[in-house]
Alpha/beta hydrolase (Arthrobacter sp. K5), 304 residues
Amino acid sequence: MSSTETPAAMIEDVVGRYVNLTSSGRAQRIYFEEAGSGPVLLCLHTAGADSRQFRHLLNDPEITSRFRVVAFDLPWHGRSLPPEGWWKEEYLLTADAYVAVVRDFAAALDLQQPMVIGCSMAGSLVLELARRHADEIGAVIGLSGALKVNGRFQDWSLRPDVNAQQSVPTWTSSLMAPQSPELSRREVWWIYSQGGPGIYRGDTYFYSQDLDLRGRGHEIDTEACPVYLLTGEYDHACTPADTAAAIAEIPGAKGGAMQDIGHFPMAENYPLFKTHLLPILDELQPDHDGRELDSLALEGTTHA
């Protein structure tokens, strides 16, 4: 076969498995995927979606040659089923339950000092992880995250005359940049179309109602747990201004706005997002020559 021919089949290096654990007093069977080796990069998906959003990161040899990338589906999401008795309750994600399941998952896999990267609701959740458990986390990278995000918790997706499997992904699609490749934008839409009834709404309860870190940013110790926050300029749910306010309130936090990208950077335009991620990873870990980088240099990023 010549070097220009495409192979008829290719098996990816990504491995998917299940782990059984107990979190917040309930048995959970959680699906996760991983690839690579080295320091752990633990990836948390957005509201109403699942870990497929990180497939490009999991398949990037430039990343996996240096890091063990792990991404899991929250209970009620993707390939992780709801816990027993789910049909008897209203799904509303709380900060306590969210923090607990991330910590319990990390403990079940014995992930030591993982660097946690989360997007959207998870971009805010990583700040709460850093505030509560800085000693357990190597660093946090929040995408489209802020101290407080308003306006996302809505009841309309529960109406019987609304097709949530079309309306929810279409609503979230407006958060992406028009420059992002159509194939990737359509993929984000598709993943959102497969969420369970009421799950997106229940996630936004945490995002817009339960979590409010305004006035508490000083409680995050960035010496113990470095904090990086990045938000796309086309994001109108968590705006660059919201993220800038968080950076200003958290002593030592770094980051800013990413040009030509929206709310789902790792999924809607991975090549562009990677140009912002690599400088952060290089700062957190020695480069290939074993030298520590002196400063964060994010090309195309506005620093706060």
Strands lie at 15-23, 26-35, 40-44, 68-72, 115-119, 139-143, 227-232, 254-258, 301-303.
